[in-house]
Specification:
heterodimer, A: 460 residues, mainly alpha, 14 helices, B: mainly alpha, 11 helices, 2 strands
Chain lengths: 460, 292
């Protein structure tokens, strides 16, 4: 068995199994918990994705950066702009979908990571922190500069889940949208629609024509959307936005004006969406968000695991601990720092692309200095140089505000106090952790376990 | 051309405030080799205290005194409780700790005074002065701000060059070990450095508050401007911080005048990036920002 581990690629397989196991467990959780928990799960997975990059940059490479919130903004804006403006990938006839948009976001992350890395690689300590602080404040300000392209202060609304276009997005800037209710009025019910109750989703099965051959373009059981509805007359679709689900309520009546389709509606990779077989349960937006965020987090976590535990991880640690010794050993310190920037930038961009899909919105307000500081708080509390610490930090970031909110509800605290209590706790905890336990939760636990084992080894 | 000169003159007031904040950053850097990213948080907090005193007493001057005292105390507290213990450890830890203080101070201010922007009363006339038959882009208040900045800079220069405290502060900044061997009480000197920085930051906060409303986050952008000025000035040099602070104010004023004030952060970022790419040690600086 030990020899087996020495085979080339054995570690890769080990990490792949680990990531797959994590994905499987999380997807099981995803399917069994309610909407609100799924929403939190999505946020945790999104934070973890970004913080894997922070672990590599701050923990392993030793560069304190506040720019990752801004890099998330870059990923988010690229995702939003490509999905909103392109129906096809330019110069090709490949239809755009969410997966492509995420890929573009990642490419943008590489480019910006390279630029910031080249600027930052020669800088140390406070200079780097100050430069990235400027980036964290400056890049969201660019969105305000070009309101035509970036939507200015109000930002851009997204229709999510973008690629299958299967759901009328109730986009709210606050992101506090937990339950999306279906309309319940019965006004526009088609006369023949007796087989469907009010508010029911129309599928090819309960469609009230009684004749399955009337729906040649749709497989049985598929959701009917404004796009696959087999009507010959596009003007009949006017009451429904392209891509919206048809319900018995918004079913189009004749005589309205047509509207051009601006959204492409190809189908998302079924592994990340709920797919078309979730009809009887109904489509739960939060579940879809969580499954997307979990998939991205597991892929990113797999890459991070390979980098951290492989050769590149040792290179980063060597440069952090002693740049001169590393240079003598043939490592380029600047090169390794730029690599760390690029990797963390790609992770941040992907997290940003997931974030805007969770919010159904992209705007400068969501990516302020506060987000960058949150990421820093998360990895410091969890453990600066540990991927597990990043996950713990992500859980803390999402859980603590809810915990405080619960406490406040019980004790009847002022709203002013409740809103600021989590940040006060974060700030004090960060100072305390730096002073008392620089390794964070994971580092402290490791030290504790190590001490216990040492003691038992000595006594035994 | 006159328009250009007007924009330049109009930037002196804000430049003086950026210069004061940059000065505070340089003071802490010289004392402990730590850039205190919580400096604007401390300034914001003391300005809120000043606002409370102002509403109680109605006196702008008493409020300013209150802010100065609070600034000194807060500087000592932060240095004594946070930075002194961290100093033994890595620089990353110290930087992260100052950000922790910033987050905590902003949250505490939000708890006590609320998250909304509040207006700070304007003690002097803020309308343009009419003199020699034309309107100048300066107000009485701008002149007061410039006056305060000048007095502080002269006072600090005298302190550093003419007093024994200043001598021991310079010695400590130059080489703490040798200073300790020569009988300087290094720990106390460092704490005094932080108290001084707190005072300068508090004055900057009270001076900037009437021109822009005050909220827990409203000084974030000032941190970026002040850091830009301090780094380009060399981070080690008081003169550099003042000169580049005013220079940054002028550049931002001209940029805002010809285009739009929302360009200012981006311009500051570009200035900072150019400086760090070309001459990381700054214009007036001596020590290198590079390693390896």
């Amino acid at each position: 068995m030990r020899d087996l581990m020495r085979l080339p690629g054995a570690r890769l397989i080990q990490h792949a199994l680990l990531a797959f196991a994590a994905w499987a467990v999380l997807m099981w959780v995803n399917g069994s918990v309610d909407e609100l928990t799924n929403y939190y799960l999505a946020l945790i997975a999104m934070y973890a994705t970004a913080m894997f990059g922070m672990v590599i940059l701050v923990g392993l490479s030793g560069q304190v950066s506040l720019g990752n919130g801004a890099l998330m903004a870059i990923g988010g804006y690229i995702f939003a702009l490509t999905t909103l403006n392109w129906q096809y990938i330019p110069l090709t006839s490949i239809p755009m979908n969410g997966v492509w948009a995420m890929l573009f976001a990642a490419i943008g992350g590489v480019v910006f990571g390279l630029v910031i890395g080249l600027l930052g690689a020669r800088l140390t300590g406070p200079y780097l922190a100050g430069l990235t602080l400027g980036i964290a404040v400056g890049i969201p300000a660019i969105a305000n500069r070009f309101p035509g392209l970036f939507g200015g202060e109000t930002g851009l609304q997204l229709t999510v889940p973008y690629p299958d276009g299967g759901y009328p997005a109730v986009a709210e800037a606050s992101g506090e949208q937990f339950v999306t209710e279906l309309p319940t009025s019965q006004d526009a019910l088609p006369s023949a629609g007796a087989s469907a109750g009010a508010g029911d989703l129309l599928t090819s099965d309960n469609f009230p024509s009684g004749d399955a051959s009337a729906l040649p373009s749709v497989a049985p059981g598929d959701l009917l959307t404004a796009d696959n509805f087999p009507s010959a007359d596009p003007s009949a679709m006017a009451s429904v936005a392209p891509g919206d689900l048809l319900t018995v309520d918004n079913f189009p009546s004749a005589g309205a004006t047509p509207e051009a389709s601006s959204l492409d509606v190809s189908v998302l990779d079924p592994s990340t969406g709920t797919g078309t077989d979730g009809v009887d349960l109904g489509f739960v937006l939060e579940r879809w968000e969580a499954s997307l965020a979990i998939a991205v987090a597991c892929i990113v976590g797999f890459i991070a695991l390979n980098l951290v535990r492989g050769r590149q991880g040792r290179v980063w640690r060597a440069v952090r601990d002693d740049p001169v010794a590393a240079a003598v050993s043939g490592i380029s310190p600047a090169g390794s720092k730029v690599t760390a920037f690029m990797v963390s930038s790609v992770f941040a961009s992907l997290a940003g692309a997931v974030f805007v899909q969770i919010l159904a919105y992209v705007g400068p307000g969501a990516f302020g200095l506060g987000l960058s500081l949150s990421l820093l708080v998360g990895i410091v509390l969890g453990g600066r140089s540990s991927l597990v610490g990043a996950v713990i930090g992500a859980v803390l970031l999402v859980w603590l505000p809810e915990f405080v909110l619960g406490l406040a509800g019980d004790r009847g605290w002022d709203e002013q106090v409740t809103n600021n209590a989590p940040n006060l706790i974060y700030g004090l905890l960060v100072v305390l952790v730096v002073l008392v336990a620089p390794g964070g939760i994971v580092g402290t636990l490791q030290a504790l376990v190590g001490r216990i084992f040492k003691r038992t080894a000595r006594s035994g | 051309m006159t328009q250009f000169l007007d924009y330049v003159l109009g930037g002196i007031g804000s430049g003086a405030i950026i210069a004061l904040m940059a000065l505070a950053l340089v003071l802490t850097w010289r004392a402990t080799r730590v850039v205190n990213f919580a400096q604007v948080g401390q300034a914001m907090f003391t300005t809120f205290i000043a606002l409370s005193i102002q509403t109680l007493t109605g006196s702008w001057f008493i409020a300013l005194i209150g802010a100065i005292v609070a600034g000194a105390i807060l500087g000592v507290i932060v240095q004594y409780l946070v930075l002194r213990p961290v100093k033994r450890m890595d620089t990353s830890g110290a930087i992260i700790a100052t950000f922790g203080v910033l987050i905590a101070l902003q949250a505490a201010a939000g708890m006590i005074w609320g998250g909304d922007s509040q207006a700070y009363p304007q003690p002097f006339s803020n309308t343009a002065i009419s003199l020699f038959g034309r309107e100048w882009p300066l107000s009485v208040y701008d002149l007061v701000v410039i006056g305060f900045a000048g007095v502080l800079v002269v006072g600090l220069t005298l302190l550093f060059t003419r007093t024994s405290l200043g001598l021991s502060m310079r010695a400590t900044a130059f080489n703490p070990e040798v200073a300790r061997l020569s009988g300087v009480r290094v720990g106390r000197t460092l704490t005094i450095g932080w108290a001084l920085a707190g005072v300068v930051g508090a004055v900057a906060g009270v001076l900037v508050a009437p021109t822009s409303a005050i909220s827990p986050n409203s000084f974030d952008i000032l941190l970026v401007f002040a850091f830009t000025a301090a780094v380009i000035g060399g981070l080690d040099s008081l003169i550099g911080a003042v000169a580049l602070g005013i220079g940054t104010g002028l550049i931002l004023s001209v940029v805002s005048g010809y285009s739009d004030s929302s360009n200012a952060p981006v311009v500051a970022l570009v200035l900072l990036a150019l400086n760090l790419a070309i001459k990381p040690e700054g214009i007036f600086g001596h020590n290198s920002a590079r390693s390896v």
